[in-house]
Amino acid sequence: MSEPVLKVFSYLPNPRVWKALIAADLLNLQIEVAGDKPSNLDKWLWDHQARLLEDHERHSGNPAARESRRGFSQTLFKTDAFMLAHPFGTVPAGFSKDGNVGIFESNSILRAVARLGDQAIGLYGRDVTEASRIDGFLDSILVFSREAQEYLLAMDQMTTYQYDRMAEAFEFFSAGIEQTLQHNRFLVGDEMTLADIAFACDFSQFLRERLMQNRLDSVDLHCISHDAETIYPRTFAHLQNLSTHAVFEKYLGDYNAHIWL
Fold first, then answer.
1. Is 134 left (phi over 0), alpha (psi -120 to 50) or beta?
2. Which of 120, 97, 123 is CA-nearest to residue 19?
3. pLDDT digits 0-9 by tens, 33-70
4. Angular region, 21: left φ>0, alpha ψ -120 to 50, beta rest
5. Which is nearest to 88 in space by CA: 63, 109, 105?
């Protein structure tokens, strides 16, 4: 087995990590992944050499102890080196294989994998113009996924404002994808690129809302994506086609099973 080209620390399972893993598999590269379910990340030392903490290390006097932010309620343990590499202190957290350079934001980790792989495969486009168009989709997907993250985290205390904001973001994003797929087999032309990988993973994560309808029932709301297949048929067909690809299916198969029931 080849040496890992990157290290990633994150909560798991995480579609945002799967982006990099899908690209790595397509490029025949290895990524070293460490992590645990979200509720257990307070038991880990956040570092490029992440590890489980001993019980006696988990206390407020530990120099790595820090107040949690964005999605966590426990005290977390982040080394100074981690915070230097990842100034926003978030996961997924990518690292160069020597641990000296931090790569934050899942789409940046995805780009790093593509740059480390065989350029002839074309995952990051065939020229500068295609690469820039891929970047445009990656930026749009990031904006959508940020809205989706806030929405999913708010499920237990949903407000009309939060719901309406997500509904507007979903409509805007899906309409753009639908428009694109009227003319192309993939998001950027007729070859699979990083744009398709990011779309499949982040759109799939948003669709987890369908497993949370019971939480919306208490405020008399429907899942935003309810019956969206009829409005955006190309978008959902594209997700389904990608999900049946052997590499995508490895990560998204079970995760997306609820969509096609």
1. alpha
2. 123
3. 999 999 999 999 999 999 999 999 999 999 999 998 77
4. alpha
5. 105
What would the pLDDT profile of 128-156 be if each residue is shown by its tens digit? Answer: 999 999 999 999 999 999 999 999 999 99
The whole-angstrom separation of Cα 224 and Cα 217 is 12
CA gap 24, 158 in Å, rounded: 37
DSSP letter for 3, please. Answer: P
Residues 6+ apart with CB under 8 A from 220: none
Task: Identify the band that residue 74 occupies on the pLDDT scale cut at 50, 70 and 90.
Answer: confident
Structural domain boundaries in the chain: 6-116, 124-260
155: buried, middle or exposed (CB in 10 Å: 19+, 13-18, 0-12)? Answer: middle
Tell me the C-alpha distance between 201 and 198, whole Å.
5
Instruction: State the sign of the Cα–Cα–Cα–Cα dihedral 9, 15, 20, 25.
Output: positive
Q: Which two tokens stand for residue 54?
A: 């001993």
Q: Rounded to an integer, what distance in angstroms lies between the CA atom of residue 125 and that of residue 122? A: 5
Where does 124-260 sit in CATH, by number?
1.20.1050.10
Three-class SS state of 261? coil
* CATH of the domain spanning 6-116: 3.40.30.10
